[in-house]
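Record type: ASSEMBLY
Status: queued
Input:
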Amino acid sequence: MITDFKKYLQQKAGISDADFDKLEPALLTKQISKGAVLLRQDEVCSEVYFISSGLLRAYTVDNAGKEHVIQFAPENWWLSDRNSFLFNEPALFFIDAIEDTEIIVLTHSFFDLAGNITKFTEFNTKALHNQVRQHQQRISLLIGASAEERYIDFVERYPNLLLRVPQWMIASYLGITPESLSRVRKELARRNFKPTK
Amino acid sequence: MITDFKKYLQQKAGISDADFDKLEPALLTKQISKGAVLLRQDEVCSEVYFISSGLLRAYTVDNAGKEHVIQFAPENWWLSDRNSFLFNEPALFFIDAIEDTEIIVLTHSFFDLAGNITKFTEFNTKALHNQVRQHQQRISLLIGASAEERYIDFVERYPNLLLRVPQWMIASYLGITPESLSRVRKELARRNFKPTK
DNA sequence: CGCGTGATTGAAACCCTTCAAGTTTAGTGG
DNA sequence: CCACTAAACTTGAAGGGTTTCAATCACGCG
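Status: finished
Output:
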């Protein structure tokens, strides 16, 4: 719903009512059913999504045909191939829906309008920095941690996703096989592991 | 040298002479000798570096005391813990010098000035997007590719770093042990591998 | 009910690490 | 400029963590 998006922008970015009114005409809502594909690798991405409800996923497909999950995006998250969006380059990944999902679709016309609103551009930059930090942490984990450590990190970082994402997709996100994840979970259960939060 | 930095900003960001003159008073050059540490984990990072000549490295140290290289930064690259810089949070990594290095030091006062120059903020955003894309590609590789594939990717992506970075640091960047990298190289030599570019 | 998808389990194979020992390289002081 | 030392790189053997392949189980949905 647009009102959710408005509330989000006001709280997170400090956008005023008046400013939001300027942006509203450029907004579009869309219902996505589970499994639907929003973006394909090598297409040019012309939209940025804000997830009102539901759950999207970004993933690559390698030469061997295997999927590798780059990111999950539940309610109040953003998702797009921003590099493709901004520079009109071919997208590096696919985007599809893990659940029935409701999104706000933001096109270039939205960002043209929003570019004049300082609060928004500041927020946008901040969001980018957050993404960079997240990526750096994930790289650290992938470089230095075992499958079990990476899974524990995932559980503690995204407890709300655990029950909503199929296990084989979590395995893909962690960079291991579904079989390995199953064994990691079995071992953790044996040791009676409980998330610390 | 400051003139190198000026040339860089003019070419890459389209900054005018007049605009650069406004920024120049906030610039500081610094000589760093090999091995010197510029930033420590958990400190607050108050500077952004532009490398005029030489080579810097960002890395984390895990609980077991092992170093994991996040990024190499040769001439004409930027380096900072931007998240720490922007939000005054503790830095996630160390920065030190792999070679004797000459840098331009940019503090908050520089960014305050530069914030008024549209060309610069646009360039800055673009640079952030580039970093995000790079990180995504690296995550894809770490998730989906073998040690050999990751090394080949490194060789082709950063041929200029091959001779300047000690092998054990490259191993750390790739997320493998120095011994493994040595064996990967031996195997590639046996197969007479040559970089495609 | 039956089919398909996802999760589990087992055994073998493989990749990479670990540890230990050597060899080479690079830097430093005499 | 050589000699010495420390660091970097290489090599081998053993072990561990993950993958692969195959079979089985569990579940939801037509």
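Annotation: The longest helix of chain A spans residues 118-144.
Annotation: Residues 60 and 93 of chain A are 5 Å apart (CA to CA).
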